[in-house]
Amino acid sequence: MSKHFFETLYLSIILLIHIKYLGDPVDFLSWFLNALHLALNGTKKRDSSIVYKTFLGHMRIYTRKIPPLELEESQRSELLHTVEYGETVTQSPFLYLTCDLPPPPLFKDQFTENIIPQVNLYTLLNKFNAVAEKEYKTYKENFMKRFEITELPPYLILYIKRFTKNTFFVEKNPTIVNFPVKNVDFGDILTPEVKARHPYTTYDLVANIVHDGEPGQGTYRVHILHRATGQWYELQDLHVTQILPQMITLTEAYIQIYELRKEANVENGDSKNKKNT
């Protein structure tokens, strides 16, 4: 890479970071991966840069328009048979997958006030099983979308969407995601046709970014696996400490990076048994 790229990268980081402003890691991650890809003369082809070779996956997005609710049932039924309201399919590349957390309970009684909501990682991944639908609203029209992963990358990045922004403030979803550190089988969300093209679908966690505190404030921590020793480390600013993998699963995970395991046998048992642990 040229000296010019690193100079541009340094200046861009300085512009992104302000002493009174806590940046969002996913914004920086998205910008950095795309900027690095372009700096390496990358194109739309998968093998055009190390970034795409490592992180690029593909999916199909199925979209259908929802008829206005104020119409009568007969009118809505007629619209559903028109081309405008028919389902469309688009092919889309991705560098990371956005996982949507379920909304936290709005009202809490004295018994549930101190209980932190939890959700299984596999529940979040069902968004990409080609069956589950989610409604997306715009100021003008509403759409139903479902997602089908067609190609898994060697390294898979998950972005767990914790922050919701509106006109007035930013809200944080504190839901804890229960996930195994090893043997996460993404083959369970693939269609049989797509799974047949993937001889390996099991991933291990290698990095985990955590947000602690209130939205717009708080701090970030990073958990990194040292491959040679199998030891996990926690990094926060200039502080580096060892951490047990069991402690990582108790954090408010925000961004995760998984590495594909190209082995016929999975260590420590079948990952499907881990879903219920």
TrEMBL record:
According to the record, the signal peptide region is: 1-23
Which InterPro entries does this entry report, sorted A to Z? Papain-like_cys_pep_sf (IPR038765), Peptidase_C19_UCH (IPR001394), Ub_carboxyl-term_hydrolase (IPR050185), USP (IPR028889)
Catalysed reaction equations from the record? Thiol-dependent hydrolysis of ester, thioester, amide, peptide and isopeptide bonds formed by the C-terminal Gly of ubiquitin (a 76-residue protein attached to proteins as an intracellular targeting signal)
For this protein, the record's SUPFAM superfamilies field holds: Cysteine proteinases
Which superkingdom, per the lineage? Eukaryota
Which species does the entry assign this protein to? Vespula squamosa (Southern yellow jacket)
Q: What is this protein called?
A: ubiquitinyl hydrolase 1
- USP domain location is 1-261
Q: What Pfam families does the record tag this protein with?
A: UCH
Which PANTHER family does this UniProt record tie to the protein?
A: U4_U6.U5 TRI-SNRNP-ASSOCIATED PROTEIN 2, UBIQUITIN CARBOXYL-TERMINAL HYDROLASE
Q: Name one GO molecular function term.
A: cysteine-type deubiquitinase activity
What is the E.C. number? 3.4.19.12
Name the Gene3D superfamilies for this protein. Answer: Cysteine proteinases
Which keywords does UniProt give here? Signal
